Amino acid sequence: MAAIETAPQRVPVLGVGVDVSSDVLAEAIALHGRGGGQIVTLNAEMTMAARQQPELGAVIAGADLVIPDGAGVVWALGRQGYRVRRAPGIELARQLLDHAACHGWRVALVGASPGVMDTLVQRLGRELPGLRLVWSSHGYRSGAEWPDLERELLDARPDLVLVALGVPRQETWIRSLSGRRRGLWMGVGGSFDVWAGTKKRAPVWMRALQIEWLYRLVQEPSRWRRMLALPEFAIAVLRQRG
C-alpha cells in the first residue's frame, strides 16, 4: 500500500527534490514562523529544465519548500510509494493571500504587465479588504531599474512576496536576494493574469482529470515546444523504474 506522509520529507523525482507533505499550506505558514524562505512549485516541465540547467537545479535544491504542483510529479511520487495530492501553486498562493489578509501580513507583488498589475491591485483590494499590500511593481522594467526596485521591496519588509516573472527567471531572481530577504517568497507564473481576469484557469473537471496543461496549451499554442517536456518526463520516470 502507498504511504501517506504526515510530515514533510524531500523525495527525489529524477534527481530533483520535492517535499512530500499532507498540508502544504500549514508547511508554508510554519516556514513563515521560522523566518521565511523560498517556495518553489515543481511540475514536470520544470523538473526537466532543472536537469538541463544547473542554475535552476541549484535554486530548487536550495529552496525551503518545494511543492508538487504538477500531475506528473504526483504520478512520479506515487510510483515511489508516496501518495500525495497535487498542490497547484496558484491555489497555495491564493490561500496565503487569504491568510495574510486575516493575520496582518505585509504583502508585496512583483511581475506581470503594467495593466495586469494595476487590475490585480484593484481586484485584491475589493476581494480582500484586510490585505496590507505594502509594495507592488510590474515586471516590465529595464535592467538598470531593478537594483533600486529591489532595495525598495526589501525596505518594505514584506511577510509574503508573490513573483510572476516566469520560470526560471522568478526562481533565480528570488534566490539572488537570499541573505537579504525575509518572509515567504514564491514564484507564481501566470497566476496574476488569472486573478486579474485577463486569462482563465482550466475548468474544474479538467483539473480533476489532471489535464490542466492541455487547457493552457489550447490557450497558448506557442507553448507546444515546452510541452514536449511532458512525454520526456514520463519516459524518464518509467526508465528509472525499469
How would you explain this protein's 3D organization?
This protein is an alpha/beta fold and 242 residues long. The protein has a domain at 88-189: Response regulator (Rossmann fold). It has 13 helices and 8 strands. It has helices spanning 24-33, 44-52, 54-62, 71-79, 89-103, 114-127, 146-155, 169-176, 191-196, 204-208, 212-219, 224-227, 229-240, and strands at residues 9-13, 16-20, 36-42, 65-68, 106-111, 132-137, 160-164, 183-187. Strands 4-3-8-7-5-6 form a 6-stranded parallel sheet, sandwiched between helices. The chain has a two-stranded antiparallel sheet with strand order 1-2. α2 crosses α3 (54-62) and α2 packs across α13 (229-240). The two termini are 20 Å apart. The model is unreliable at 1-6 (pLDDT under 50).
What attributes characterize this protein structure?
242 residues; alpha/beta
Q: Give the terminus-to-terminus CA distance.
A: 20 Å
Looking at CATH, the homologous superfamily of the domain at 88-189 is Response regulator
Shape: globular
By CATH, the topology of the domain at 88-189 is: Rossmann fold
- Tell me, rounded to a whole number, the average pLDDT: 90
SSE order: EEHEHHEHHEHEHEHEHHHHH
Count of helical stretches: 13
What is the CATH architecture term of the domain at 88-189?
A: 3-Layer(aba) Sandwich
Widest sheet, order of strands:
4-3-8-7-5-6
Helix fraction by DSSP (H/I, runs of at least 4): 40-55%
* Number of separate strands: 8
